[in-house]
Queue: 2 jobs
Job 1
Amino acid sequence: MRELGYDCDVLVIGGGIVGLSTAYAITRAAPGTRVTVLEKEQGPARHQTGRNSGVIHSGIYYRPGSLKARYAVRGAAEMVKFCAEYGIAHAVTGKLIVATDKAELPRLHGLVQRGRENGIPVRELGPAQMAEYEPQVRGLAAIHVGTTGICDFVAVARQLAESSGADIRYGADVVRVDRRPGRGAAVLTTDGSVVRGRVLVNCAGLHCDEVARLVGDDPGMRIVPFRGEYYSLARPELVHGLVYPVPDPAFPFLGVHLTRGIDGDVHIGPNAVPALAREGYGWGVVRPRELGATLAWPGAWRIARRHWRYGAGELRRSLSKPAFTDAVRRLLPAVTPDDLVPAAAGVRAQAVLRDGTLVDDFLIREGPRTVHVLNAPSPAATASLPIGREVARRALGALAGA
């Protein structure tokens, strides 16, 4: 790769919201920097970004001082501003987190304290006050988080791509990476094209660990895909805004919740079941190589042994609509199985360590002339602007040292 052989200064793999935010941040921080983004799909945001609840998270759930807490709180405010600036559909709706059982009350009070530590305004509610927000929702107590909102994250991703000025190449599936620490990286795509960059950024989401290994770096984790299944509510008038259960702190999943989206539809879900492929959006999608790689990772078995009871409940709700309905009725008693209309599923790219630990924070690592984003599930869409700036800072630092 001679001096004149570089196609760009920074080469980003992955055209989800994190990859596109990184491109946007690089060109904002260092105008004139040439950025190319390779995305294997025919458009942006086809996976985690475009298959979530569309919620702008407040940051209340996350450990104070963690990247998730800092970036979600900052990112929520920035996302609202970004949407307003570019005319992207959004709303700051607030949300209820509802305790339906006495055992959940201490965790609910813990969320109040955590929210205050993270600088988030929280209002505690009794049943009568809850009814002012959500007449059909039942619970023992709740908290109202005013900074939560909703938006169209796919539109945000498209705007980031356009505003970045980067060269966005769709249909560019990466099959090989040749990185030479003193010279940068050359990437071969399925159509035979070769793209050369001085610095490589890995924002490949569901495939980020595979890309790290293609580059020659040991990521020290594996992506274990969890499918989240959703329904739409046939009677959307039952829910006015956003309603969440009190989450189990042992898991990074928030539980089945109710979300009135920017389109006015109410989405219910997700649950969390193992996916049989990285992009396994249904039980019928099985990719033996990917499934085999998951089963070969010791951490996957350790998760299964440690959390089999939780997993069995999630599996039951996946296979039984009445069981899923029962979970929803804890929050919304009026709902019936006929009210639940199947909707598109999503897959969460969850990083798991060898010992079975679920990585609970954003994970960004560096190699020679390389930056890897190795764990960026929810609330990464909310936090995408701060994440993009952090990845851009590291990429530009590598570029300066190149």
Note: Residues 276 and 283 are 7 Å apart (CA to CA).
Job 2
Amino acid sequence: MNRTTVALLAALEAVIVVAIGLAISLVPLTVLWAAQYHLAADWFTFWRASADIWLVGHGVNLTVTLDAQAAATLGLPGAVIPFQVTIAALGFAVLTAGLGVRTGLRAAETPFRLTGAVSAVVAFAVLSAAVTFSAGSAPVHPSVWQGIVLPPFVYAVGVLCGFGFAALRAERDGKDIGLSDRNDRNDRGERSGQAEAPQSRGAVLSATAAATNRIPPMIRDASAVALRAGTGAAALVIAGAALVLTILILGNYGGIISLYEQLQAGALGGAALTIAQLAFIPNLVIWLASWMVGPGFAIGTGSSVSPIGTELGPLPGLPLFGVIPAGGFSFGLIGVLVPIVAGFLAAALLRSRATRMHDLHGTSGLLVAALGIGIVAGIELGLLAWWSSGAIGPGRLHDVGPNPWLVGSIAAAEVAVAAIIGLVAGGRARR
């Protein structure tokens, strides 16, 4: 394929990704428009609602202004005053990032992977801006700059992860993507009389290598271990939280169904509510991970759900919140062991690297690597906690989710201590 074809196909894939994300909420709302309103209402009202939902799913803040009648109907204190919805329904972001990984993997298989990635992200950004400008209405106003920046950023992160997965796969298969890509380009250029000069790329690589070599060897080696093991530890904590949430949903299935029945939302309303809850499942997974780390999370100002106690006030009318018992989770402090076990396993699995670190830098190298593992895991879990929290409504609903600073700092300490044991055990086992 030539450069133009790669760019067009990547842009088309970005269009499909945006369409899928919007269709998740737009299709049920369109069915509601046809079945309940008999095509008489303004369809663009449902389009703007779908656009708002899609933007919120990528972290875009909404400013909501309700009239007195609507505020009284909701029965929320302070709803008459304009308030912001800053929490992200991360299911949409996870979907966009996952499809972005697919785009990155596809682009990495072409000779013009950078062209494909840039074309896809630019097309996504243009569509995101169009959705943002069409979403504004009298009661709800999305943040314009966030609507233009955040959804493409999420997609770009997915594309970069796709590149990373492609590089890891090539490393596993013993291939050099960059070299083969450059040779293929030069071969095609020579045949067309437009051979590329490799001097500029060689200069960039040389400058990068020189900058890397200026880093002390122990810090450089420890950083490589920390990045892999820290990310692995954070992933294990999230996986453990997802498993616990699945068990809680299955164990509290009857209570969730009874909450559905109390709402009396009807078939279409129940379907829309289910889609909204599916979008919030990643948030709940991160909240449970924060619970395992120790700080827990809040669902409203003054509330707390943590291993040392649970204090709940009135909850939003989401049946999925039925998995949160008023007296706290029955498994108690056992869940706190998850980040410790995750830090130990992630460090112990890097046995060969631990042995090399010990041989080259001694015990101090292992301590620096363990500290780096804790810092990486803490930063990643703290960022996830920050992204999953925010305001979901007026009044006390302004504070929902975990405290990212507490989650990040406590997770860093727990994982670092466990990683020290894991690296020492891994190094000794290898020797």
Note: The first helix runs from residue 3 to 35.
